[in-house]
Amino acid sequence: MKFLVKFFSIFVTTITIFVFLLIGAFTIPRLFHINPYVVRSASMEPALPTGSLVYVNANDTEVTVGDIITFGLSTGKESGVYVTHRVYQIDTARNMIQTKGDKNEEPDGFIDASAVAGTVVFHIPGVGFALEGLQERGGFVIIAVSVCLLNGLVVLVHCLDRMNTPASAQ
Length: 170
Hints:
Layout: H1 2-27, E1 34-38, E2 53-57, E3 68-72, E4 82-91, E5 96-100, E6 110-112, E7 116-124, H2 128-136, H3 139-164
Antiparallel strand pairs: 1-2, 2-7, 3-4, 3-7, 4-5, 5-6
């Protein structure tokens, strides 16, 4: 019985740590104006694989040719659709930026510099789709409640185990 209690306790603790790391990877950087975005296409491979979680410094909108930036599509930052590509050309006279996906043959059209959400600071391959899926379906709440219930069960099992253990063995 003690082995099962110990195993269950370690298992739940591991899940709890994993959940906190996932939630932290998506929320903590926002405190420092570093916003996560999911790479949904292969246009930036191999630099940014599809499904990567890219972290974009929202305070860094001054860009140079070669920087990887995230920008709002069509109507600027508020459109809700973002693209992450490399700066290909800058037209300072018109305050316009042209980008290009590393894997694309042709550059994109020019965008207004005000559409730039920021520059990519770093990325984590493969994590983006998982986090996005959890966020869209209320998965974080379901997982958080499940982890709390599992931790409560661990406490209950430990208490029951203590009650069934003779005083001389404690």
